[in-house]
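Help needed: design a sequence for this.
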């Protein structure tokens, strides 16, 4: 009897370990691809891997890291958010107009973030309370935010503000390594998101909703509130990304953020989060952004047209989607 119990317990632990390994496989694959790309780059170019290059991977993409954090929340519930790129444009122009009017940074910067929160809340209400498909709801949010950007200004507006410029204009050095306050902020958000996903009830509910929404409702979980909150979080992250992008470009532009929502989705998928929801890690999304940034740098090193970046990303997305389908089929077996 005791032996049977021990065997059953061992088998349960073995299955749990196997399931956890399967869940991490896409993230591990993304990490392997990142290391392989660095190795191939070093072999081909000689001086490819350096503190300067690795620092630039973060320094050039803090706003994309923040977008990917918010998008991970949404995709884990099985949703999508197409509005985040347009929010970057609207928040940047809002900040430019308010700074030009003489408003102080302690008021303008929170308002820039709040503009994203409001758009996210609108999308969240449509998805959670009116049961509108996330694609349609976020598409409406995208048009709304982009329209507000054009209403704010039809042309690019310069921003001359020390507080905003400090985020990505100030460089902190650690030997040959460099970083900026904006990069530190983006990594702090990744750490906070990781804690929320794995150590809070809300995070566990996000996974449950994405895994099986009907089962989550039967378990008494707050499905409607969770679906609303993930879009609120995504919109807030888009507002923060708008602040970082405005600091990066020192301007507000109605065309800013075009296609950036697709870049964020690509990074999240490459990082191992399954589009149908329920499986993925925010650490993987960070790795996905680094892979995306490294592809851009490699294309620059090869002195070929920048459009090759999209071709490579498209091929990688197809590979990762097929890989995820294979893992899902393995789990079912």
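Sure. Designed sequence:
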């Amino acid at each position: 009897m005791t032996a049977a119990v021990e065997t059953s317990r061992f088998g349960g632990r073995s299955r749990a370990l196997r399931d956890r390994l399967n869940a991490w496989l896409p993230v591990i694959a993304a990490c392997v691809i990142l290391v392989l790309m660095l190795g191939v780059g070093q072999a081909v170019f000689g001086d490819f891997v350096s503190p300067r290059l690795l620092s630039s991977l973060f320094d050039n993409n803090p706003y994309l890291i923040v977008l990917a954090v918010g998008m991970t929340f949404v995709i884990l519930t099985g949703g999508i958010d197409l509005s985040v790129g347009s929010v970057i444009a609207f928040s940047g122009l809002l900040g430019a107009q308010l700074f030009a009017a003489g408003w102080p940074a302690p008021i303008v910067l929170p308002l820039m973030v709040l503009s994203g929160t409001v758009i996210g809340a609108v999308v969240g209400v449509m998805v959670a309370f009116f049961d509108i498909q996330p694609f349609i709801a976020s598409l409406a949010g995208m048009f709304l935010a982009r329209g507000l950007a054009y209403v704010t200004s039809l042309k690019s507006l310069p921003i001359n503000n020390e507080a905003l410029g400090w985020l990505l204009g100030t460089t902190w050095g650690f030997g040959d390594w460099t970083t900026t306050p904006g990069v530190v902020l983006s990594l702090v958000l990744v750490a906070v998101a990781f804690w929320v996903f794995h150590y809070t009830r809300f995070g566990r509910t996000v996974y449950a909703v994405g895994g099986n929404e009907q089962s989550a409702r039967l378990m008494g979980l707050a499905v409607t509130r969770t679906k609303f909150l993930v879009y609120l979080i995504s919109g807030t992250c888009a507002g923060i990304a708008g602040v970082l992008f405005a600091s990066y470009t020192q301007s507000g532009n109605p065309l800013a953020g075009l296609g950036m929502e697709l870049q964020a989705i690509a990074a999240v998928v490459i990082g191992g989060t399954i589009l149908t929801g329920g499986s993925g890690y925010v650490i993987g999304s960070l790795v996905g952004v680094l892979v995306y940034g490294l592809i851009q740098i490699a294309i620059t090193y090869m002195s070929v047209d920048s459009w090759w970046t999209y071709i490579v990303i498209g091929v990688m997305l197809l590979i990762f989607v097929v890989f995820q389908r294979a893992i899902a089929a393995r789990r079912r077996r």
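The CA atoms of residues 82 and 139 lie 6 Å apart.
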